[in-house]
């Protein structure tokens, strides 16, 4: 049996650890052969593969990124896309089954392909922790750790200058990274897409912190929006035309807070460093366990399924379970954290 | 209501984060007062307390250790020990309830005291992850991360010198730290108390790695023993009298491996650095959530219970659930990891 | 003798270590008393002090920021500024001498005050390493380490996506942080204020890297400017009016590179996390040694001087030596690094 | 011109960065060819080489260890050793010159070979910082950083348990790592081979710290010895026969301190993790600069010389300068640190 592996979507610490675990167990226990599709679905659609063996995956448990490359290319793109063409390509390459490592979009595509007969199983991947059917995914813990270290650093500068520091972290649609790093770092407010908060409320928190003699520190997910964004833009002296040129939400909030409270405020946008580099031990263990379970799932021919973490165990769940609703921060988790605000 | 907090047993990253969360929520939401008992049960038995307020717990989310001090003193020790004396001390201090943060021994004592009428609830704490009724406890993730970073460092030296490196990590009775750090670090064998392994098997793994041109790296929990310890001792040239003076198991294994395989071997005993210092973000979040739930549990007057992590949620469980059997590494988790040995 | 300490200018890892060393040696060896001026020169001008003793500086060797607070307030500002008023304030407070920890502006002010008779000595502080008369200053090594870790993380994401990553680090007038972190991280180009480089040259380097099959990674100091900034602005679709609203130079360069080369490009602006948090061991040692030498210099009554690192030794130099020209990256250091570009 | 590179002696973070810099500059600027000798002098003596080109050194700036392997084999060992045989081997391989990266022993051997006509230059390498003629060597900063992080972690556990923590770091003959990490970590005493200190003095320091209400923390270099080692052994209940089986000096000191002071004391031996893994940015920059200078020195045909750091500049010095006396910690550096003891 020859199995193809692909990594799709944004970079994520732990991708290489999944690949390594699949190949090590697949070769030593099941005597299978492996290829990697280059740059995600593009490699599958175009039949662009590299051989994968034990030697090739050596040392990958701790290596960030993906040796296979990744892209946002979809399996239905281009003249060679779609299940029929893909099956022909697989036949031509002698590849019997596919393991697709990726986020919500990837798993939705995998589901469609599985329904059309492609022998495919999924491994969930998302920095943002927004995928249902799995308690956590690898990459999230690393992103939270990096954001928390940034908070630790910003705090000393905020305290020394009595400034309000606003840190923007990843999370376009969900606020998990902000929630966990903000709680770990002792942030005075955590602003997430799931929870609309007015600038008045933010100002109240900030002033409450200042009145206790401390320097306010806020964590904001990139997808958070104020209910009064017009005011946000006008504070920056921008009309509608210029809006796309604005930086992130932190760069909108900091001057608003400064204007309203008189507290010198500074924005930091953490950006891509959250999704690269050496994974935490937690993410390496999770990624390795998911990889080991993925190859078992292939051998069990449970196509159309995905491996997932539930409590302390790795299980096999239907791809459809993972799809549909994004896993947002539930109200009780936000309320739990909000007790420490202000 | 006035509540007393104590931390008992070995140091553990996250203790301060629990204390901080209890006090912040207890004062701001419930308007309670707090004291800390110094040095674990000793402070409770002897009525040795320090006041705790919002100001005192500032900045503790990231601070390792415990500001209350800890010891291995038990609540039944000394002339002032035992539930009757303790209740008198609590009455004298005006303390209405106790939150005891500690491991298996501490929670067993809490159970006895609760059965005797003391208003007490527990927060689980163990570096070793050996406590039932909770998926994980704070401190474990930090210990695993530190051990994993040590493996990453040892690996380059092993490779450069073609040496066999043996790293000893914590785990007197259970092998969780070894299992997770070994998997994260890509160890070639993981030796834990739960799984007897012969020196012949270890030598087979080591030689298999060497034959592939690599430098073997082994992780061993301190509580692992060879089934043939006599040979171990005789390799070190020691008779029974001298055995207690031996270092850890790593220092026994390394010379045995070198003698049997001819591969230069080196032992490293990681020791106390695994249980001190800044907690990982994961442990800070878990410790904070347990602290927040602990104060709710006090307010709900659910004496004799303990807060615990189940999946992604913090729940309240009976103290008796946490006791009894140590949570050892189950067979399927060992087998899962063992596929990557050799 | 009573001595006052102040920290002035931007936050910098190691400030607290200097304060600690001064107070520990000053109290234990010389039996002196200490106060700290709050928020830099403001505390001196306004006579706003806090007492400093051994207990107060406990644990500060590793703590980022400054417990005294800092600001950009100058000693000639306000109705109480200037040497005569300051001397009166010192007399009123019973303070005999001042140690001013700060950068070029602070040391220039210290020089003026010393010339006017104030008993003052300086400790150099600059993240940017732009101060003459001292080989290095504390804070620089920490900033370089943080920037290097960011490069390590960005590299995996760049490689996985075949993107060009552009990292902007601190350095408004000098490129030391960019030079050292770029060399440590293996950057394919380092762009610094001291060295004008055309966009054509940058494109040549980027394409050369791409043609070798690798993902280009550039480090740019915030003060770097293109000789053709008009093109930069027009690429962002901005006319002169909107220029101040642009983000940093990385956000100008990334779209220009993408437009010219067709390589997807991403900017990251590291910002304030470079100047906060736990100092590296190097910076702690340097800051401690400078503090120890500073109190000796006070006792020797060598007013108007500054402590400085020369080779492996801490020496006393005239404040005038430290002033005048910024210490820029010399041509031979740039050429040395540039060999590895492209 | 074809140039051979070797790395000799103990592992050291930065070795790979030197190799990378040599090969990158040598191929791109000077169009030279390179081979690496495997396992230090053994590869040279036995003619065991691997080709080195730009592709082979990719990503090595941050990678610990040495891709060439290292050993303690000497160039005069075996039937093929000695300058005449070595010259024949070089001729056979077509290698024109040798760059030897190593410590005192390596450079002494290089000097002998250079004097006998071998075209060889040296790059200094020592974790211990014990080599004269250079201010610092790569690897030392990384070792100090790792030891300092260990101190930070041990401190919280010491404080929580009111224990005396004794950390043993590398330094068989010189105490530089202990001196710098102890100063950075705020140790209460630093014990180094250069400075005999009695157990009475140590006890005085420890009790002084305890009397101030703090937990004592000591850093000891592995080569430190008590002037009364007989007492040390007898405390452990050992006679002369068993002495070699003792662990390190920390494991001798801790029980002595406990016996004398009644303070519970714990030893930690840091061991091999000090010399492996990712180098600090400081060490990467230094290693890279030394590598770049080394290839220039070869091109200048300055055989028998070594590259060295002097202040902020890399210079070429005679190999004989680097030899002779070990660079020990001078009295004034010890006195400077000792002010903070107790």
From TrEMBL, chains A, B, C, D:
Residues reported in the UniProt entry to bind ATP: 10, 72-73, 103-106
Entry-linked InterPro entries: ATP_PFK, ATP_PFK_prok-type, Phosphofructokinase_CS, Phosphofructokinase_dom, Phosphofructokinase_III, PKF_sf
Active site: residue positions: 128
Gene3D superfamilies: 3.40.50.450, Phosphofructokinase domain
Source organism: Klugiella xanthotipulae
Subcellular location, record wording: Cytoplasm
Family assignment from sequence similarity: Belongs to the phosphofructokinase type A (PFKA) family. Mixed-substrate PFK group III subfamily.
EC number(s) per entry: 2.7.1.11
Pathway given in the UniProt record: Carbohydrate degradation; glycolysis; D-glyceraldehyde 3-phosphate and glycerone phosphate from D-glucose: step 3/4
Entry-linked Pfam families: PFK (PF00365)
UniProt keyword terms in alphabetical order: ATP-binding, Cytoplasm, Glycolysis, Kinase, Magnesium, Metal-binding, Nucleotide-binding, Transferase
Subunit structure: Homodimer or homotetramer.
Protein name: ATP-dependent 6-phosphofructokinase
EC supergroup of this enzyme: transferase
Catalytic activity annotation: beta-D-fructose 6-phosphate + ATP = beta-D-fructose 1,6-bisphosphate + ADP + H(+)
């Amino acid at each position: 049996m020859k199995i193809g592996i692909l990594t799709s979507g944004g970079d994520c610490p732990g991708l290489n650890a999944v690949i390594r675990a699949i190949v090590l167990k697949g070769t030593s226990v099941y005597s299978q052969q492996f290829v990697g599709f280059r740059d995600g679905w593009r490699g599958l659609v175009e039949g662009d593969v590299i051989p994968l063996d034990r030697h090739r995956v050596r040392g990958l448990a701790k290596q960030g990124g993906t040796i296979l490359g990744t892209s946002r290319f979809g399996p239905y793109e281009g003249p060679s896309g779609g299940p029929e063409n893909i099956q022909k390509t697989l036949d031509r390459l002698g590849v019997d089954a596919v393991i697709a490592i990726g986020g919500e979009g990837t798993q939705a595509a995998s589901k469609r392909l599985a329904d059309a007969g492609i022998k495919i199983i999924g491994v969930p991947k998302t920095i943002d922790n927004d995928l249902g059917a799995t308690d956590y995914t690898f990459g999230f813990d690393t992103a939270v750790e990096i954001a928390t270290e940034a908070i630790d650093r910003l705090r000393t500068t905020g305290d020394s200058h009595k400034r309000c520091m606003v840190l923007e972290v990843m999370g376009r649609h969900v606020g998990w990274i902000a929630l966990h790093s903000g709680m770990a770092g002792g942030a005075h407010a955590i602003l997430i897409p799931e929870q609309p908060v007015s600038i008045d409320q933010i100002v109240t928190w900030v002033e409450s912190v200042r009145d206790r003699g401390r320097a306010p520190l806020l964590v904001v997910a990139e997808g958070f929006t104020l209910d009064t964004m017009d005011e946000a833009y006008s504070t920056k002296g921008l009309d509608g035309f210029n809006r796309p040129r604005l930086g992130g939400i932190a760069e909108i909030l900091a001057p608003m807070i400064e204007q309203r409270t008189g507290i010198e405020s500074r924005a930091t946008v953490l950006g891509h460093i959250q999704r690269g580099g050496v994974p935490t031990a937690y993410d390496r263990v999770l990624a390795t366990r998911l990889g080991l379970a993925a190859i078992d799932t292939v051998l069990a021919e449970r196509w159309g399924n995905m491996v997932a973490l539930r409590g302390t165990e790795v299980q096999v769940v239907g791809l459809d379970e993972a799809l549909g609703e994004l896993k947002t921060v539930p109200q009780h988790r936000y309320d739990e954290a909000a007790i420490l605000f202000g």
